[in-house]
């Protein structure tokens, strides 16, 4: 499988989702249902992956998801997805979710995860993805961390 020749930058594919949390989003504990958070994050990450690949992508797996703080009715939820790392046909998308209290201006990260997507053709077969152009120190750190996670996953998958 040959790699696409035109690398793309992180900012070219960044995806941001904003949502006011409503009663129908809330679980029996009065907080945002975790499954809703994951669905919002997966959709936001998928958009970043499709923008980067320039084609359809499918979720391969989610790793390292951490729910850090509750989100309640009336909070503004902002989800940011960025490509962290690319391999031959897969991409790791780093996703961070923030809640904002519009009354106080308080904003904090409430969830983070890494979503791995595979670019596919019209038959559903994996196809090459563009490389990633690294422009900042933060992007380099995220790329290197993503590469370590990729290698760790490959090693454990091949052992089992």
Which fold does the CATH topology refer to? Answer: Thiol Ester Dehydrase, Chain A
Please give the number of β-strands. Answer: 7
Q: Provide the spatial order of strands within the biggest beta sheet.
A: 2-4-5-6-3
Radius of gyration: 17 Å
Structure classification: alpha+beta
**Topology order in helix (H) and strand (E) letters:** EHEHEEEEEH
The gross shape turns out to be globular
The helical percent reads: 25-40%
Return residue spans where pLDDT drops below 50 for at least 5 consecutive residues: none
3D structure, described in words:
With 160 residues, the protein is an alpha+beta fold. It contains 3 helices and 7 strands, in the order E-H-E-H-E-E-E-E-E-H. A 5-stranded antiparallel β-sheet has the order 2-4-5-6-3. A two-stranded parallel ribbon has the order 1-7. The longest helix is centred in the last third of the chain and has 23 residues. The mean pLDDT is 95.
């Amino acid at each position: 499988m040959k790699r696409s020749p035109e690398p793309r930058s992180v900012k070219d594919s960044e995806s941001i989702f904003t949502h006011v949390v409503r009663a129908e989003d809330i679980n029996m504990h009065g907080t945002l249902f975790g499954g809703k958070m994951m669905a919002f994050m997966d959709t936001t990450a998928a958009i970043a992956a499709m923008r980067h690949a320039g084609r359809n992508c499918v979720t391969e797996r989610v790793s390292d998801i951490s729910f850090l703080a509750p989100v309640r009715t009336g909070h503004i939820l902002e989800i940011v997805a960025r490509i962290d790392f690319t391999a031959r046909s897969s991409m790791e998308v780093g996703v961070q979710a923030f809640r904002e209290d519009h009354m106080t201006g308080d904003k904090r990260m409430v969830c983070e995860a890494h979503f791995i997507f595979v670019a596919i053709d019209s038959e559903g077969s994996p196809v090459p993805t563009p490389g990633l152009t690294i422009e900042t120190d933060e992007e380099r750190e995220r790329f290197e961390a993503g590469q370590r996670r990729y290698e760790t996953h490959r090693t454990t998958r091949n052992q089992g």
